[in-house]
Amino acid sequence: MKFTEVNIRKMLHKDYAHMAKWLSTKEVLEFFGDVNAPFTIEQVKTKYEPRVNREVLVFPYIVELNETPAGFMQQYKISKEKQEEFGYPSPCSVYGIDQFIGEPELFNQGLGTIMVTNFIGYLFRTTDAEIIIVDPEVTNVRAIRCYEKCGFRKVKKVNEKTNWLMDFNSGRMKNL
């Protein structure tokens, strides 16, 4: 499928209903949440309202496909302690990102690659990021394949070897 217009915008209060729908979808919850605990709209509001209001330093975004919400992304700066745990030098600026496509019928069509590639470029242009990391579950083959297509490399297994730490260095931007 050819995606004609993919836009990533800041998440707004009006997006809670989409998030509640997506976070109640088995395919999304398989790797982003708990399959046995779908989110209610109140749970979404409790978790994401402080982020939307910029009260916490995790910044949420909605991915739109032809002006229709289709997915979620977020970015956050990694703490110096976590950087050291992962093996990145202190003076380096490391950001983490998380994302999912909310509509399962859009899986395996290249949308994730477009989302992640666009978001990487956005973060390097608008923040002090030098390295961007993701940590997909080792069993999430679709996400790992997407990240590798976008230029991420596997660094090491983390979280008791249940997740891959993968990174993208700003030096690889010329390949985008």
From TrEMBL:
The keyword Zinc-finger does not apply. It holds the Pfam family Acetyltransf_8. It is an enzyme of class 2 (transferase). Residues 6-176 form the N-acetyltransferase domain. Keywords: Acyltransferase, Antibiotic resistance, Transferase. PROSITE patterns: GNAT. Gene3D superfamilies: 3.40.630.30. This is GNAT family N-acetyltransferase. It comes from Planococcus shixiaomingii. The lineage of its organism: Bacteria, Bacillati, Bacillota, Bacilli, Bacillales.
